[in-house]
Request: fold
Amino acid sequence: MGSNVWLGRSSVRGVVGTPLPLRYEVLPTEEAVGLAQWEEIQRAASEREGDLVIILLGGRGAQALYRHVAGIARGEEADGLLGRLHVFTQDALAPMRMDNGLSFVRDFERLLGEAFFRKVKSFTPMRTDTNDLEGELGRYLEKLEALGGIDIFFLGLGPEAGAASHLAYIKPGSGARADDLAGVIPISQSILEHHINKFKAGGSSITAADEAECRAASHILTLGPAAILGARRIVQSIVDASTAPAKPASYRRVIETELSNDTAELERQLDENPGLWLRLHPNIRSLILPDVLGSNAGQAGGFADRESKA
Reply:
């Protein structure tokens, strides 16, 4: 699609889904969001036998979860659960060394700690230290599918111009369709600046060489709509509206947009504002802090009164 390369399934081309309202749950603190995310992992483990596949969220949205899990992993109480986890990443800048301080992998290692990665059953990041980005992404998808698909997909919401939004790095106008599992997307200077500033604000250890290599990255690897729609459970979190002031408007547009019942028009809406893909998933929990919708939006710990139109 233009300069974007999508890897998908042509057999379901054009199948989008049924528009649904997106209800949100307002929690009082970032730490409360992290505990709710951990409860989602525990619940999935109790409801399903065997291994679990989870997709990690980069950036701020799951850092409280990672800090909590890192503490748990240093003990033994959850070793049985951790030993059932197959952990994957959802996006990456490329080409880039895997140990670059501005890579999501290095940030996950910093936040989750050595004990976590030693105890989980497997960890599969998107490989970015290669000249064959499409080939590596295809192999990543093969492993994901061989494990039976995604049990929990942790997602955030990124602001875009005009109160649009991106999921993972599915950007407005990228041509992503419902059958696209993953994509290789050319990177823009604004995305690089946003990424670097976000990591610096998060306390990552970054060298001058790391930053120079990151600024030379040419593409973003990302999971696509088919991976999101195919996940058994989506857990969204938005905890950084105070430092990303464009997010409230983007989130409000996601919950308030009236989605069309016409397939062609719906596809246009989704391409213009990829955050709307969440509105097509039947099993989603959206966790936000009060400042996402204003200090009077809903009650902490419960669902807000307002629903989006469907």
Observations:
- The chain has one domain: 5-303.
- The longest strand covers residues 180-186.
